[in-house]
Amino acid sequence: MVSKIRDKETGAVTVLDTMHTRDEGIRAGTTAEGLANLKPAFMEDGKVTAGNSSQICDGASAALIMSAEKAKELGLTPRAKFRSFALAGVDPVRMLTGPMPATQKALAKAGLSMDQIDHIEINEAFASVVLAWEKELKADMSRVNPNGGAIALGHPLGASGTKLLATMLNELERSGGRIGLQTMCEGGGLANATIIELLG
């Protein structure tokens, strides 16, 4: 990959010829012992460590979203449709519980139950988010983040939503599933959930 960077003052152009071929967030040498010895991040006797939290990583993503009529007009073939979308807010002090009511609202709007969802992507800024969500929603965890979540793969702030949407869509197509659910915290006690259905 070649990038050209122009100096704003002098106008000189620096050419960079660098290819990133390895995801820097994945640490192949990680062991259970190493994770168990990590110090708590927030409180001296706390449970949250760098090992059960996502790392902030670089990332970019995009999704092309339009009506079925517009897609037909442009000669495009839609891959999926939105079944429902929901927002929820919870006590900001207990902010990491937002995906629970967001998921429940999205399921109700779509007229679906959790056992009808083929694939789930939940952004795991912290492991406790997914564990609390699982306890409340009674989800089949074999359907949740089957290719790894943010703790394993990273959390690109500002790009996580469409990154998870693309991951979910691709995995539904690969696995032969039909309906996918994505949910994530937004910060400050807010969360959202989206349900899509494959077309074709």
From TrEMBL:
Whether NAD counts among this entry's keywords is: no
Q: Where is the Thiolase C-terminal domain?
A: 77-197
A GO molecular-function annotation: acyltransferase activity, transferring groups other than amino-acyl groups
- Kindly state which keywords UniProt assigns to this record, in alphabetical order: Acyltransferase, Transferase
List each copy of the Thiolase N-terminal domain by range: 18-68
Q: Name one Pfam family in it.
A: Thiolase_C
Q: Which family does it belong to?
A: Belongs to the thiolase-like superfamily. Thiolase family.
Q: What is this protein called?
A: Unannotated protein
